Amino acid sequence: MSTELSTRITVDPGVLVGKPTIRGLRISVEQILHTLAAGITPEEILADYPELEPADLQAVIACAADRIAEERVYLVAR
Q1: Pick from 23, 40, 63, 73: CA 20 to 30 A from residue 33's CA?
Q2: 3-class secondary structure, 33
Q3: pLDDT value at position 19?
Q4: Minimum mean pLDDT among 1-10, 18-27, 62-71: which range?
């Protein structure tokens, strides 16, 4: 994730029990991902959350992609 996007995702133990949030707001990365997965368009999300910016949605997707890229699958010999 680019540096500019990575600064938009914050983790603070005092906000939403440390879940990744957007710019310290009480809007979690998970919440936005679920909303996108439900078929809500980015335009609708931005209308519902006027404090968000288009780059915040990009940062959410980049954060998810980075987390998945870190996953490792280990084959177990049978």
Answers
A1: 73
A2: helix
A3: 95
A4: 1-10
Token pair listed for 5: 């996007």
Provide the CATH topology of domain 3-70.
Arc Repressor Mutant, subunit A (1.10.10)
- The pTM of the full predicted model, rounded to 2 decimals, is 0.84
Q: Per-residue confidence at 2, pLDDT binned at 50, 70, 90?
A: confident
Cα-to-chain-centroid distance, residue 62: 7
Decide the pairing of beta strands 9-10 and 21-22. Answer: antiparallel
Q: How far is CA 66 from CA 10, 43, 50, 71, 77, in A?
A: 14, 24, 26, 9, 28
Residues 6 or more apart whose Cβ sits within 8 Å of residue 74: none
Local structure of 21: helix, strand or coil: strand
